[in-house]
């Protein structure tokens, strides 16, 4: 919010339905055929919005992604609280449903520092250095200033990810976590709708996951920005759902069932996946050594050549030591001979 400008006063909304009325942004909705030139008359006939068939939601393969629900964007941000008086209860209900039905819950916190967030320089240039504009926002759980919101605090066993940009999928381990957890559907909610929530939803959608935005468990710096984002991308990039719909016993989030792993899975699929991971690691190491060797032949010592040759030999036993780098989705593997 730019300092020195006053917002026009708005009458308080009486219900969530009034808050989520998108009539002013109907012209932004994607309700016309894609890549199909039409006359004005044809567009008018085709202008009715297509209803998306609701596929059942199984908690066992669903993750709830809670983006940037932290004091900097809620308690300390009156421009968001002003237009979203029901956000706390709607988000609390969404979290309660996900926990009750045993969905995977992933929390995301902003960690914006210039040494790992190069976009901050341009953001500061665009927004200017003002008292009400926070540029760097470190995520330091050990700090005395670090806090969660009382209505939205992680519990034991839930995952917390720090992100360095507006997207929860850029330079984080989110995609790996979803993959190994067997997730195919992601519910996205949090703050700010048109910025970090939108970018995170796009990253998940782009990766091929079914993406749903819990629209009444999101908030923005003004209802107009929130409604415009939903009108632009709801039904186009992600499905829209409310916290009340998630609670529906028939059409809402269904309780997770036990996961069975049969002996066939152990002997077949699991071994195949293990081999696939090993092959990826081996390919990475092979490519790296070849690149290093071709770029500087003079540094290719006999010991390096010997190690490379031994690595290529299938009958040579190799032990893998894997170090996971938290700030990246990449897994750096160092192989050494026994």
UniProtKB/TrEMBL annotation:
Pfam families: Isochorismatase. Residues 274-286 have a biased composition (Polar residues). It comes from the Eukaryota. It comes from Chaetoceros tenuissimus. Residues 267-313 are annotated as: Disordered. Residues 302-313 have a biased composition (Basic and acidic residues). Signal peptide: none annotated. The lineage of its organism: Eukaryota, Sar, Stramenopiles, Ochrophyta, Bacillariophyta. CDD domains: cysteine_hydrolases. Residues 62-244 form the Isochorismatase-like domain. Keywords: Hydrolase. Gene3D superfamilies: Isochorismatase-like (3.40.50.850). This is Isochorismatase-like domain-containing protein. Belongs to the isochorismatase family. InterPro entries: Isochorismatase-like_dom, Isochorismatase-like_hydrls, Isochorismatase-like_sf. One of its GO terms (molecular function) is hydrolase activity.
């Amino acid at each position: 919010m730019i300092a020195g400008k006053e917002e026009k006063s708005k009458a308080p909304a009486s219900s969530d339905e009034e808050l989520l009325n998108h009539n002013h942004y109907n012209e932004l909705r994607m309700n016309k055929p894609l890549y199909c030139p039409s006359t004005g008359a044809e567009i008018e006939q085709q202008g009715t919005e297509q209803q998306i068939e609701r596929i059942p939601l199984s908690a066992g393969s669903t993750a709830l992604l809670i983006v940037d629900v932290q004091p900097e964007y809620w308690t300390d941000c009156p421009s968001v609280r002003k237009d979203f008086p029901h956000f706390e209860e709607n988000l609390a209900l969404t979290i309660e449903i996900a926990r009750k039905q045993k969905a995977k819950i992933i929390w995301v916190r902003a960690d914006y520092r210039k040494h790992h967030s190069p976009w901050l320089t341009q953001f500061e240039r665009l927004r200017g250095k003002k008292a009400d504009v926070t540029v760097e926002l470190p995520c330091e759980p050990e700090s005395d200033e670090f806090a969660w919101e009382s209505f939205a605090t992680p519990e034991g066993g839930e995952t917390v990810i720090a992100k360095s940009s507006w997207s929860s999928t850029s330079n984080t381990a989110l995609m790996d976590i979803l993959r190994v957890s067997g997730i195919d559907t992601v519910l996205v909610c949090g703050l700010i709708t048109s910025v970090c929530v939108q970018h995170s939803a796009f990253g998940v959608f782009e990766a091929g996951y079914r993406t749903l935005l819990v629209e009444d468990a999101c908030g923005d710096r003004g209802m107009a920005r929130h409604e415009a984002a939903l009108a632009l991308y709801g039904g186009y990039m992600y499905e829209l759902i409310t916290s009340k719909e998630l609670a529906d016993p028939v059409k809402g989030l269904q309780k997770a069932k036990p996961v069975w792993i049969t002996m066939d899975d152990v002997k077949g699929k699991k071994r195949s996946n293990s081999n696939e991971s090993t092959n990826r690691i081996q390919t990475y190491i092979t490519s790296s050594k070849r690149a290093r060797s071709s770029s500087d032949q003079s540094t290719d010592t006999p010991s390096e050549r010997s190690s490379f040759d031994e690595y290529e030999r299938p009958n040579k036993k190799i032990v893998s030591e894997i170090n996971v780098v938290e700030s990246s989705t990449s897994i750096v593997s160092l192989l050494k001979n026994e």
